[in-house]
């Protein structure tokens, strides 16, 4: 009689779930501080879409809430440092940005450029998406100028944008978009690209700090 014991079955370990991926910290920058500006209407629309995206944790930087001087300084006064404290920590903490800009005279507002120029390292190796609005061009000329600015700051601008030509006609008096499907689809494309770049750059910087 064969008395050889049958081999015991190898226990199968339960799969270990992958750790949850942290959401991308994105700062939405409202670039206009103009009296009677339309930016907050577009920003509210964008924030409603971002609120449906668990892959993003959102902060807002509004150029109208800061009073940074146009004269840059390596040794700013206490008053200027107080204004920078409203902005700089949010930029530094962000892993990605969405810049919301109108078009003034074929370009972007001075208030937005001022926020950009007071900072440098805060932009580096991070992706930037754009939502623009304006007249017939929908702010796209401002966006194209901003791409060269952010390239100089070592930021990566994503290809797809969201643009509103004749912006006021798209929204009703309550700020609701009259035909939301197309702009929502455009926003999804832009935000998907932004998330991809943010996660890719996050992983890359964990292996090797930018510039090393």
Task: Describe the overall structure.
The protein is of the alpha/beta class. Helix content is 34%, strand content 17%. It contains six helices and six strands; from the N terminus they run βαβααβαβαββα. It has helices spanning 39-50, 78-84, 88-93, 110-117, 140-152, 181-207, and strands spanning 24-30, 56-62, 96-102, 127-134, 156-157, 162-165. Strands 1, 2, 3, 4, 5 and 6 form a six-stranded parallel sheet that branches. The mean pLDDT is 92.
Concise synopsis of the structure shown:
With 212 residues, the chain is α/β, with parallel strands linked by helices.
pLDDT below 50 for ≥5 consecutive residues: which ranges?
none
Termini separation (Å)? Answer: 71 Å
| Overall form | globular
Assembly classification:
single chain
Order of helices and strands: EHEHHEHEHEEH
Number of strands: 6
Helix run count: 6
**Sheet/helix structural class:** alpha/beta
What fraction of residues sit in β-strands? 15-25%
Mean pLDDT over all positions: 92
Portion of residues within helices = 25-40%
Radius of gyration: 23 Å
How many strands, what sense, and barrel or not for the largest sheet?
6 strands, parallel
């Amino acid at each position: 009689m064969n008395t050889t014991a049958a081999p015991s079955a190898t226990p199968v370990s339960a799969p270990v779930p992958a750790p949850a991926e942290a959401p991308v910290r994105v700062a939405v920058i409202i670039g206009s501080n103009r009296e009677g500006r339309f930016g907050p209407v577009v920003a509210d629309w964008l924030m409603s879409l971002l609120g449906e995206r668990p892959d993003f944790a959102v902060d807002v930087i509004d150029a109208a809430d800061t009073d940074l001087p146009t004269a840059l300084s390596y040794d700013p006064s206490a008053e200027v440092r107080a204004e920078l404290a409203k902005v700089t920590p949010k930029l530094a903490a962000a892993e990605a940005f969405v810049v919301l800009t109108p078009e003034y005279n074929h370009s972007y507002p001075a208030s937005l450029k001022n926020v950009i120029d007071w900072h440098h390292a805060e932009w580096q190796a991070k992706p930037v998406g754009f939502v623009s609005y304006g007249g017939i061009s929908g702010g796209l000329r401002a966006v194209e100028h901003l791409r060269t600015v952010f390239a100089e700051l070592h930021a990566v601008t994503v290809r797809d944008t969201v643009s509103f030509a004749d912006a006021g006609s798209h929204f009703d008096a309550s700020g609701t978009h009259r035909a939301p499907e197309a702009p929502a689809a455009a926003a999804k494309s832009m935000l998907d690209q932004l998330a991809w770049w943010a996660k890719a750059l996050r992983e890359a910087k964990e292996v090797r700090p930018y510039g090393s």
